[in-house]
Amino acid sequence: MKADYFISLKYLFSKTKYNLVSFISGFSILVLSIAYFSFLTILSVFSGLENYSLQFSKSFDPDIKIEPISGSYLSIDNNLDSILNNYDNIEEYSKVVKGNVVVRYDEKTEYAEIYGVDNLFRSVVNIDSIISIGRYPVSSANEVLSSYNLASNLNLILYNSAGIFELFSINSKYPESSLNPIGNTKRVVSSGVFTPRNDLNKNLIITDLMTAKKILTIDESLYSEILIKSHKSLSASLFLKDNLSNYTVKTHKELNESLYKIMNSEKLIVSLIMILIVFISAFNVIASTVMLIVEKENDIKTMKAMGMSKKNIKSLFFKHNFLLNVIGGIIGIALSIIIIYAQLNFSFFKIPGLEIGYPVAIKFMNIVFVVITVIITGFCSAYISSLVLKKN
Question: CB-based contacts of 160: which residues, under 8 Å, 6+ apart?
């Protein structure tokens, strides 16, 4: 071991002439540990909230969505059909039809959007996770799934014949539309109620594909959109965009662009604030190193007399300061990982008003980001403290 390494470690753990220097060194490590603990914990909380929000958004948004470039409907041609059935990164896909309907129940009327889905819809999106009352409808029983706002406004009764309500389409294709704009009629009952994630689907009815097409008088070969499930959504979306120029292809991130931007901007602002706090905390380490330099003035003279160069002496205190930063970083990161792991497994902290553990997530990139901050802060702190020795 080189002399500067050995002496820097000796100064780190040995007692000093003045207890104040040892106290400030210990206190600076404690402050840095708290700063790095808070930094990684806050990043983990943001990651947990991001995962929770995106998981909730996947209750209605797929990994990839294909829509027509113009118009309301698309037709599945040979090229699209071949890709959907043969491309390895597409696990499952669901065909959907959308349109506007009038809902009438017990002399109450509401406008709503109807969402006609096929049998694979539940496999592609996690709709079951937001069904708050009842169950997913059985298509053969003329059952539908209604949004909470619609069910509340109409006071719908679930499951039984007393809750049967009527769906009407508004379609200008009908010859009598000028006199009677109401087209096809369908009598259905709500088997369940789901809670939408935003105002875009306040009044919404989910039914089977054929029922929706019949009400909206849409040709059997036409669809509003195709929802795709894929664990490799990025590569799959790039492939689809290259090969399906006649369609609009959007990933889950592009469908929730506003949500991603808000969460990323909040995370960036908090990260910058925490980096500032860490840099301020590092001044305690600088102060302790400067005081150590002043206290070890006689030792520095002795080391010079023994032939140690100014560069080595400067390196000695540089490494001492850097080690203080690293120790604080290791303690803070280790404590944060322990707390986050405990929260993931035991849910000590719960969301107020809900019996749900506060969402957190251990992400490798968050740990790497904090470690990089430790290294940069350590180098900056050590360089500033070594400037004092240079002046002396």
Answer: 189
